[in-house]
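Exam review. A common question shows you a sequence with its structure tokens and asks you to describe the fold in words. Practice with the pair below. Do the first one on your own.
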Amino acid sequence: MFGSSPPFNEQLALKFSQCINGGKIGVLYLEREGAEAYLPNYWKGINFSSIYCMTLKEKYKLDELNSLKSCQGVIIGGGHTEAYRSFIVDTELGSLLKELYREGIPIAGFSAGALICPEICVISPNDNEEGSQLLERGLGLVDELIISAHYLEWNEEANLEKAIERTEASLGIGIAEYAGVYLLNNKLSATEGYIHIQYNDFKQTF
């Protein structure tokens, strides 16, 4: 999971490449002006054989889901967090992603893509029109933790602390821009860049 836009950090790109073993990757993104020209940033530094890019929407065709199901790794892009959550979490696409994850397929998320991965998706006051912290149902790929993106750049310390208090999560991870974390079996396995780790009883920064 990454705290901002792509590309992957160098070591995490290597880790993702090792996980997919040079296979096919799927990239999920919101269709907007300039999106297709921006897409190559998502796979920069990744060793893969082919790519399937799929735009997010309310309903998905069977052949789209089957194409994604054939991928050895999935990347969820960044952008409007509420839109990403709406088009993924409560759809057949969300169910498929959880199925792939249970089968051992690595899933990477950038900013909004990272925020929707935990059981609870915490949307910062800086990231929605209401200007208040929103707690929404996430994909549930990882539990007992919450994520805060753009941690330094958006001054997210208070937001992360409040989210931990409201959700009673055992762990909060603040990820600065151009930084990322790798979780294996729900455990923090590797970090790259500025990461803030906060448990209910203490804090730690890398």
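Now try the second one, then compare your answer with the model answer below.
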Amino acid sequence: MKKIAVVILNWNGQKLLEKFLPSIVEYSPEATIYIADNASSDYSISFVKSNYPTIKIIQNKGNFGYAKGYNEALLEVEEEIYALVNSDIEVTENWLQPIITLFENEPKTSIIQSKILDFKNKEYFEYAGAGGGFIDKYGFPFCRGRIFDTIEKDNGQYNDTTEIFWASGACFFIRKEVFRELNGFDSDFFAHQEEIDLCWRAFNKGYVAKYCGQSTVYHVGGATLSTENPKKTFLNFRNSLWMMLKNLPTNQLFPTLFIRLSFDGIAAIRFLTQGKLKHFFVVLEAHFYFYSCLFKFLRKRDTNQFEKYYKIKSIVFRYFVKNGKFFKQF
């Protein structure tokens, strides 16, 4: 059995598989490749079977989204390392070897992310992950190479290997035993922020996440759900609150949540002033959904939460008030 499994979650993604599977097959000789299919109704699976007979197919019984989709599929994958790769990722030659070497040489490193560049503009980092992720005190995620909507050009400034707080679900490596110890992703999230929640839970148990700048992939981003879709806004706002409720240190929990809810209110008003009424209403919907599940998610809290989980206190203040647009300014 090979050491690493590349597992691609698919839902009606035949066109993406046609475009991006060739690079994965060509440049992943170290891996067993799987397609985890969320009950697609197109010809995705027949295409894979006809053109890539060595790829293994795992057929989920429904469209379970990212979180439960991977949870169900990975029950059938026994390789030591999982490489969870979006169907809109193009990989490069030798992308896996630096990751495997890092896992072999650093037993405490349990989660790794590659350098993620923009497939449509390959000189720039891509929004979802860029050069590795962090959060601020109020749960706002940001990356080396991407702060809110400011994207950095790749000039080799993040070609290093360094510890991060979260790895992007677009190209997410994790040891099998750690994924199973943590019971995988939280399936209630469906999609968005579930990888940050998983990394936070891993962090609270003392595991280390790293970024590996010697491994490069290109990500389309928004291929399954665009940033303009109100559903994406809803999932991001709701899931961020759930993530914080589960993982914040006990003595910081409610004061920090209150401030975050206030920030969300400001964001909702901003949507309103921009004429984005659907986005305004889904922020409200996300908050009501959060309140309705409050006790359920309080019961999911672990007994151990580290105090210092954040890189800086407020990325909102740094970005909008102090004009801190780039990671190296922090």
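Model answer, second protein: The longest strand covers residues 208-219. The first helix runs from residue 14 to 27. Full marks require stating both points clearly.
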